[in-house]
Every structure is written in structure tokens, then in C-alpha cells.
Amino acid sequence: MSADNVFPLFLKLEGRSVLVVGSSNVVESKIPALLEAGAKVTLISEGDFPSLQPGSVQIEHREFRSADLDGQWYVVAGANAELNEVIATECEERQIFVNVVDDRKNATAYLGSVIRRDGYLIALS
What we know:
The protein is of the alpha/beta class. It is about 20% helix and about 25% strand. It has a five-stranded parallel sheet with strand order 3-2-1-4-5, sandwiched between helices. The chain has a two-stranded antiparallel ribbon with strand order 6-7. The longest helix has 14 residues, at about 80-95. The relative contact order is 0.18.
């Protein structure tokens, strides 16, 4: 994939539902930026995340269900490859953008490196 066939975009997530699925450190690293953007984050995970502030994220310790996608604006899938593919397929059917961690083929959204300085936000891909 080249940079020529993607559309750079900034999302207003304040007050909007975002679903995060998985239990890796990479998944955990995505959550602070989502919270900073004001997203209402639900985390579906069988793992524990002691570094997350209690109450900042709705954590559900269980397996992913298709109904978890209902009402979501954006999804981050960071589970195993098989589940990530299921989530990506279901997001495609529902027209929900999904960042599939470490799987650009199944992702419809990519996160770049971010630089914040003096009121400016620069994202690089």
C-alpha cells in the first residue's frame, strides 16, 4: 500500500463510543489517546490492565460478541489474528472504520505518529 491511496483525517471522538478489543500492550497504548480525544471507550478483554484509571474505561472481561459493534463509531482490534479478521469483516459490513493492530491488510484506519506542539497537531504516516 502506498500513501497515495489513503485519505488523511482527524476524527472528533468526543462523547462518541469507541470499542477496543484485545489484551496486548499495543492495545493498552492506544487507549490514552482515545480518552484524551474524549471518546467513551469500552475495552473487551480477557486480560488485566492495572495501569488504566478506574472508571476511565468500561472494561468487560469476556470474549468479543458481534453485538459489541452496535453503536460504535470506531474500533481498535488487537486480539489474535483470527479474531481480528472476524472483527474487521464485521466492521466492513457495518461500515465502521477499524484499526487492526499490526495488520494493514484488514485495517480500514491507520494510526500515525503524532507530534503536539504549541497548539499544533502533526500526524505522520
